Amino acid sequence: MELTGHWAICGALRNSYSIINLTLNRFTDKRCSKRSAGMAYELDWTKPKKSLSLTIQILNSLIYFMPWSLKIPLVQKDLPSHSKMNPQFTFGAPDELYSPILPGLPDDVAKHCLALVPRTNFPAMGAVCKQWRSFIQSKEFISVRKQAGRLEEWLYVLTGDADRMGSRWEVLVLGCLKNEQFLLPPMPGPVKAGFGIIVLHGKLFIIAGYLVYEGAGVVSADVYQYDSCLNRWSTLAKMNVARYDFACAEVDGKVYAVGGYGADGECLSSAEVYDPDKNEWTLVESLRCPRWGCFACGFEGKLYVMGGRSSFTIGNSRVVDVYNPEHHSWCEMKKGCSMVTAHAVLGMRLFCMEWKNQRKLSIFNSVDNSWNTVDVPVTGNSSIGFRFGILDGKLLLFSLEEKSDYQTLLYDPEAKPGSEWQTSAIKPSGLCLFSVTIKA
């Protein structure tokens, strides 16, 4: 089909994402069937003619609403029949060698178009074709959305049932979902506890743990991944060492798991790292001594392990073990927190709450390795603690007191002195066990 006279998109095309969204909705409404909780669709969109027709309609919609200052003429040029150019950069490449993401558009422009669609439509987009689904699952998709200024931040909260024998993941987003909540599909496998939770490239990792109904005697090495863009779970490579109550964190695009309890109840000093590009776990240098009930975070390319207990200390340890992946070695810092009940990382700072004093925030600044404390403006029983969440650059404190009238506290570290503390309407439906923020 002749494309002369049509217009392509330049950098500011982000302003027209809503038009793509409307076009996509019109086609999915006609040809898709609901598959699960309104989050995934099946779409028969395989014929090239239909694909090209859809692309032209999207372009026409974009052209109509786009300011003239953002339009650049796109003319299809005649290419030599024996062109030696890379097929990926050639409009005239044979179909068997190259299939464009959006027919009639260069792939970089097509990717930018897809990246402008609102996050709630990602599952439907992933059902259009394998090429779209592959792009949406990739790290590049997150990168393109970031460059376009279209990243959306959602808060995922693991809430416990009333009997505390089960749990479920729900999404809390203020404004984007009209303050409503929706549930994730159930986690695969048996119900577990003591597992690790990590976020990497828009995906949620559930690592190891022990089987709740079998007790701590049955320890798992299984790892599951939730794709927040496609709303689906998948299984990843198993760990080398089954463990629970261990520390885990992301450092430079890789996932580290350290210490914990093993399958026989023994305390572990072993550590391993997961490479998402290879889907592979590899053992690395072990801790100098076993450590369990601890947590970890990543700063400036290093892994910090703190809290919990260590076989080198009596009671709870304040020593911080620091792993340098570049040198494959551990060192230690003498000052840290002990008996930590909640923690969260915001920028270059770590926020902790200790069991002995749950009315103060302990804040670690990784720039100068310093600690300071901030009072939490609540009164009453000091044994009632909190779970932390991060949203929009602010720290959320979800109370563990099961009362319907409690309010979520919000701490803004960048606010003017005296106005750091506020309340938030964001609130999970049940007892908050853990929360993570995923940008996509």
UniProtKB/TrEMBL annotation:
Residues in F-box domain copies: 105-145
Keyword Nuclease: no
Keywords: Kelch repeat, Repeat
Keyword Repeat: yes
Domain of life, per lineage: Eukaryota
PANTHER family: OS02G0202900 PROTEIN, OS02G0504900 PROTEIN
Record protein name field: F-box domain-containing protein
